[in-house]
Amino acid sequence: MGFAFINYAMLAGLVAVGLPVIAHLLSKRKFDVVQWGAMQFLELGKKTRRRIRLQDWLLLLLRMLLVALVALALARPWGQGGIFATLSDGVSRDVVFVIDSSYSTGWEGKAITPHAASIDWIHAALEDLNPGDTAALIDARTRTRPLIVPATTDFGRVREQLNDLPAPSGTSDLSFAITEAMQILSTSSNVSREVIILTDGQALPWHLEDQARWERIEDLRQQPSIPPKVYAIDVAGQRGDSTNFSVDRVELSRNVTVPDFPIRLRATVRQSGGDNIQRNVFLEIDGQRLPAKATEVALLPNGEALVEFEHRFDAVGSYIMSVSLDEDNLPADNTASAVVTVADGIPVLLIDGDPQLDPLKQETFFLKSAFAATGNAPWIRADVIKADELGTVQLADYRVVFLCNVPSITQPDADRLVQFAETGGGVVIAPGDLVNGQAWNNLTLTENVPLLPLDFVKIEQEDTTAAEESVTVDHQTLQVPWLERFRKERGIDFAETRFSRWWGLTPRVAAANAELAEKISDNTVSIPPAQTLAKLSNEATLLASRDWGDGKIVQFAVPLDADWSTLPARNDYLSFVHELVFALTATGPRRNVNVSDPLLLPLPPNTKAADWVVSGPTGDSLPLAEVRLADAPTLSYPDADIAGTYYFHLATDIPESGEPFVVDFDRSESDVSQLDDAQWAAITDSGTIVRVEEMTNITDQLKQENSRTELWWLLLFGVFGLLVIEVAMTRQMVLGGHAALDVEPAAA
Fold this sequence. Notes:
- There is one protein chain.
- By secondary structure, this protein is α+β, with helices and mostly antiparallel strands.
- It has four domains: 2-28 and 39-85 and 711-745, no CATH class; 91-241 and 673-706, 3-Layer(aba) Sandwich (Rossmann fold); 244-343 and 666-670, Immunoglobulins (Immunoglobulin-like), CATH 2.60.40.10; 346-569, Rossmann fold.
- The chain contains 15 helices and 41 strands.
- The chain has an eight-stranded mixed β-sheet with strand order 20-19-21-22-30-29-28-26, sandwiched between helices. A six-stranded mixed β-sheet has the order 6-5-4-7-8-39, with helices on both faces.
- Helix 3 (114-127) links the parallel strand 4 and strand 5 (134-140).
- Helix 1 runs antiparallel to helix 2, helix 2 runs antiparallel to helix 15 and helix 5 runs parallel beside helix 6 (211-222).
- The chain starts with a strand and ends with a strand.
């Protein structure tokens, strides 16, 4: 049997008990007594004086008790167990339902999926709630979605949200969802407060290794005067055979390509559990399997295999490329997709730092020739300008800008390139003997943040007197996807390129420019990290890059002509410069994103933002906002909080006719093994969470836990009764006066 209060702050009202005492003392103030007439011969008897004094004390105590009962009633006391349980059948409840909607809850190995079982259970639980009870609903996915907040007494709204829940997708974070639920309950007022988690019993969503999370959960639970009860319900039961096959995320050689140019994609196929087995793997384009591209992989128990496909598109447009498996009990991870954009030639700008009358001596000659080598319909359309013309060109008309042996540029021109990169453009700096390294090092992205990924130090030269081999490309350093094809085992001769000279490239903090290094050190400026993409055989940096906004800045140590290397003479040169452009064009507003990343698309000409909608996994068509990127109108959808495929399309068209986006997710839950006894113990031993074994007895268990009875109404009855007694006593004393007094004559 227990007793407590809901609102302890209201107990401060007990200090008002002293008010009747203060009033009584004030009424006893002494006054000057004037003797007059025959009154001096009258005197109250001792018995009468005692009775009057007793009535005064009783009335004072009655009034003090009356004030105390009002203060206690406002504090809303409740009792649990014992005689309190007999006073009421139950109490009002605030319930937050947390439904695990991660893709593992779509397991189809039984008659009903765990996700569908969770929905049915909540529908049944709503039937057991009474008028005055409230319910809230949280959809736990990669991004936790509070669907009904604050808690409501309109259970019809809760049912509508349950019926409209999208299919399971992504992963979930149940520990975070519990935190969200407790914050909802912190504003509730009913005596019984409960968080009910419906899950399929996987360990991953609980984050048991993160002790700080669980300490915060327990702290939040203990803060209210009535700690909420947290129940975990495993709706999946025993799965039986939990073998599962899955496809990891697709990795593309490029996101943007041109017609008839090969694009490669690869993915890892995994088996969770199982035995030695052969599985068919398929390539799909816009949901259609290509039988000619099917392959077969051998999988060991808990094993994996890498698959790779190559494809050429014959028309411009946006396509969804997928790697898929035949269906199993968990269909959500049998397919992995990515969007590829096929463009009709990519516009690039070549800036020549040493214009010559002889085309063969121009810094951009080999680049422009390589881009034009694909015939009448070049994959890349290149324009050439002089360095001093940079300020007159509209950079928004291009996707990539090459600065070829440009001695230096002004900071205003650098600012234009920075804005170009921020909005998705690629900037390539290919230095030669004319480059003023100090001037380039002084250029900035923002205040005190250098434009270049690495500092130009000085021009190095091959030691022709040494007996060592010539300086070439260290092909082992070619690790990023677009460069991997040029490794010795896959390329033709890129790795055999010989270099006679190169610029030394050094990180800013270790640069020879001590003044700038000290400036950065004094201001503790955070420099965006530079990534080394390729090195020479003598370990000097050949190629580096830095992400900036939605774009990228790439820095070579050599020019892209034949002055310092044999690169233009390599068979791989044409493929190399094309792959570089395609890799940089893949930056900018992306079509393949993660949950909660914004979806952005340049507003098509001759249309308005109001003409467009977005359709996603929920099946709803929602309006799009218009934002401006690089002063260009752009369609934006910031709330892609559910993994799946989205389409930007005209409101009058079907979704599949529009521009696709893929919102991808982590596939950690493909291992559907359930929590073992030790893991369940880690969740429940602290007492924060109570595990419920059977769904059928959950209601009875909740009633048993909530046999608490609010007592404020009893106290209000007491207040009413005391008021009646106080009025009766006061009336008797006033009306009776001294009629019944025992008056004795005064002594002579």
